[in-house]
């Protein structure tokens, strides 16, 4: 019998939001920053020639970071028309949890990004039109921040021969005056801060370091203040009314991020005294963030995402982006896509689910639900929804409101079709997607049930309460070759009670119930994984917070049937 599909309230609210926004007239976008530069007779900085440095997301350490590996050009995405604006090429930088850069790069390739290149272990540089940037914001599951390059000191600027002319900062920036002049020379403020109506947009400036910068650039606040002052002076020079841009640190229209990548050069060395004359300089890249609503890893379906400081939270809660990235690394997306084609179904088991981050993200992947839709529908804050009306809609050189609305409407339709398929049945009468999870702790189980309901995937996920050693599955619930096990058992950093027993019970569950499957276990303690008494076949290294984690793959062999004749 086919299961009844109740349309979640989530999609009703999204549809209402899209319909409401379609009633607002769209505005005409003006020329791009590049076109504005042409109009002023300035030399154009070609994005394809930009050499970005490697950054460790917001985890900045004073260490050398290796060069990224280019993944090559991608296939065009069928979701939207790329041809009309593919000449408007932009350079972007997306950040992620260290270790998920390849998963993020794969997502970007899928949506049509070009020249995708992992930078360090927690970021990906790519190029594409504004539409590609919008798709990354809507569909990426592993991204934390999405930034568009405004100016880079690493690019050599030839002498233009005009009065304006660029200064060459490719040899590095050493002083606050250098930084001030760099912004004055490279930032076109009418395109950056103009609202298209004669007014000015609000702004904020943040600073991120990689390595040890020159002394005058070592203070985050004063370095950001230098950038702000330079931009304000540019505005004052261009306007006769004395108006200056306002700074908004809560929800700015143009959030700017300055990356300072230190470099050292030995100018001379006295081999007798072993004294060295060291030249410390920095390459700086100025970006603007496409969203001012915090990190994109927050989907909004958790109780603690509601803004209520008293809302309960699981002690070892996993970030949504981490769960999604690990699922993609494990091949859950490929398993689901195969199930769409061959109709054999896809099954996911989580015997220690905690607050159900793995199952919820797996259901959203299976249902083709874009993370942006969940963020839009889950917003409960005051004022305009920053996910439905991102700050870039106020920029006059990026995209139109009509384009954004069409992209959200298309993503909503994809989600409806995807969820309908995920809740349908295969030819054999089994669910197309079956996600089963278990949690022993009553408080964590309540949080899991709440997250599943708020995400609108209750028809796909089944939650069992109890110890996994007592969780017995039906014979037809595990399909050999079509079932994946994922789990984040306690491993001793934030949870310390009865850890060894938990791992023993997990081992017995896998041996008894998960024969013929692949099991992926997340652990930050090598000693505990030995309790499983299994040989891993793959290890994915992840760094989150202060912890170095491993996502370990195990092949669980199916039990051979006992031959009674041989036993006699």
TrEMBL record:
CDD domains in the record: THUMP_AdoMetMT
One GO location term (cellular component): tRNA methyltransferase complex
Record keywords: Methyltransferase, Signal, Transferase
GO BP: any one term: methylation
Domain Ribosomal RNA large subunit methyltransferase K/L-like methyltransferase: from-to ranges: 314-549
Database matches in Pfam families: RlmL_1st (PF22020), UPF0020 (PF01170)
A GO molecular function held by the record: methyltransferase activity
Matching PANTHER family: RIBOSOMAL RNA LARGE SUBUNIT METHYLTRANSFERASE K/L, RIBOSOMAL RNA LARGE SUBUNIT METHYLTRANSFERASE K_L
Name the UniProt record assigns to this protein: Uncharacterized protein
Natural source organism: Thalassiosira oceanica (Marine diatom)
Lineage, top ranks: Eukaryota, Sar, Stramenopiles, Ochrophyta, Bacillariophyta
């Amino acid at each position: 019998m086919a299961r009844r599909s109740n349309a979640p309230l989530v999609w009703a609210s999204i549809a209402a939001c899209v319909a409401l926004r379609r009633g607002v007239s769209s505005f005409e976008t003006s020329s791009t920053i590049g076109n504005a530069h042409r109009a002023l007779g300035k030399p154009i900085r070609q994005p394809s020639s930009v050499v970005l440095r490697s950054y460790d997301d917001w985890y900045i350490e004073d260490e050398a970071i290796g060069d990224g590996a280019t993944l090559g050009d991608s296939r065009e995405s069928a979701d939207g028309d790329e041809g009309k604006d593919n000449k408007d090429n932009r350079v972007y930088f997306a950040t992620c949890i260290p270790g998920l850069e390849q998963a993020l790069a794969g997502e970007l390739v899928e949506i049509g990004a070009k020249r995708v290149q992992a930078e360090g272990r927690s970021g990906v540089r790519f190029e594409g039109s504004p539409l590609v940037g919008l798709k990354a914001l809507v569909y990426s599951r592993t991204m934390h921040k999405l930034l568009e390059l405004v100016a880079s000191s690493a690019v050599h600027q030839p002498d233009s021969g005009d009065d304006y002319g660029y200064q060459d900062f490719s040899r590095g920036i050493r002083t606050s005056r250098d930084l001030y002049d760099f912004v004055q020379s490279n930032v076109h403020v009418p395109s950056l801060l103009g609202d298209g109506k004669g007014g000015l947009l609000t702004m904020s400036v943040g600073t991120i370091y990689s390595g040890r910068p020159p002394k005058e650039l070592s203070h985050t606040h004063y370095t950001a203040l230098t950038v702000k002052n330079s931009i304000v002076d540019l505005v004052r020079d261009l306007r006769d009314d004395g108006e200056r841009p306002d700074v908004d640190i809560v929800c700015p229209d143009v959030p700017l991020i300055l990356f300072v990548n230190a470099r050292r050069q030995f100018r001379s060395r006295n081999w007798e005294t072993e004294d060295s004359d060291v030249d410390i300089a920095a390459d700086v890249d100025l970006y603007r963030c496409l969203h001012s609503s915090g990190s994109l890893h927050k989907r909004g379906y958790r109780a603690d995402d509601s803004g209520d400081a008293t809302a309960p939270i699981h002690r070892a809660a996993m970030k949504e982006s981490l769960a999604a990235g690990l699922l993609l690394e494990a091949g859950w997306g490929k398993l689901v896509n195969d199930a769409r084609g061959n109709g054999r179904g896809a099954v996911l088991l989580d015997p220690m689910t905690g607050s159900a981050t793995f199952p919820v993200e797996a259901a959203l992947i299976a249902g083709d639900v874009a993370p942006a839709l969940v963020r839009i529908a889950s917003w409960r804050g005051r004022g305009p929804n920053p996910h439905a009306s991102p700050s870039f809609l106020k920029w006059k050189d990026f995209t139109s409101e009509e384009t954004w609305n069409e992209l959200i409407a298309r993503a909503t339709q994809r989600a409806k079709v995807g969820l309908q398929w995920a809740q349908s049945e295969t030819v054999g009468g089994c669910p197309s997607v079956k996600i089963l999870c278990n949690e022993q702790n009553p408080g964590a189980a309540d949080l899991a049930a709440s997250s599943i309901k708020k995400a609108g995937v209750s028809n796909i996920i089944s939650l069992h309460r109890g110890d996994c050693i007592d969780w017995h599955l039906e014979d037809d619930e595990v399909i050999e070759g079509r079932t994946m096990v994922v789990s984040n058992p306690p491993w001793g950093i934030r949870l310390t009670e009865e850890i060894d027993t938990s791992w023993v019970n997990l081992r017995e569950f896998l041996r008894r119930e998960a024969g013929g499957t692949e099991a992926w276990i997340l652990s930050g303690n090598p000693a505990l994984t030995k309790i499983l008494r299994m040989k891993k076949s793959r290890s994915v290294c992840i760094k989150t917070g202060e912890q170095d984690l491993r996502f370990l793959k195990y092949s669980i062999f199916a039990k051979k049937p006992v031959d009674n004749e041989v036993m006699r």
